[in-house]
Each structure stands twice: as structure tokens, then as C-alpha cells.
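Severity: low
Component: inverse-folding endpoint
Summary: output formatting inconsistent between runs
Steps to reproduce: submit the following C-alpha cells with default settings.
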């Protein structure tokens, strides 16, 4: 899917709205509500967080170069 436009919500809201469509012509356009979290909200005073998904644990970490890496 290709994001056509991204409408950022007000600062006090925790989601954005994106209008997306398939790359192929004549496909429906969908309006999605996408939850937005800042890294400050996720990490607070740590450099790694554990994420549980389908009984699997993933580690999301901030590198020394301030990049995000997700590992299983």
C-alpha cells in the first residue's frame, strides 16, 4: 500500500490518520487510524523494551547512533 496523505492528530491524541491505496489503479482507498508512540513514551529511562507478539518476545533497542533495531 502507498500512503497518499498522513493527517497528524493533535498533540494530545495518540493516533494519526493515514489515507492509503494499493499501488495498482482502481483499488479502494482506505482510511486507517494508526497509533503513534514517541520513543520517549516507549523507552522513558531505558535503552531497550520487550514487546510480546503472538507468544513471541521481541527486543526493541536504541543504538549508539540513535537508530531503532528490533530483534527476536
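Observed output (run 2 of 3):
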Amino acid at each position: 500500500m502507498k500512503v497518499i496523505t498522513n493527517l497528524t492528530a493533535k498533540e494530545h491524541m495518540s493516533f494519526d490518520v493515514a489515507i492509503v491505496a494499493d499501488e495498482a489503479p482502481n483499488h479502494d482507498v482506505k482510511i486507517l487510524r494508526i497509533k503513534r508512540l514517541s520513543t520517549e513514551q516507549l523507552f522513558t529511562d531505558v535503552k531497550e523494551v520487550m514487546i510480546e507478539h503472538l507468544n513471541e518476545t521481541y527486543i526493541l533497542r536504541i543504538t549508539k547512533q540513535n537508530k531503532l533495531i528490533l530483534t527476536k
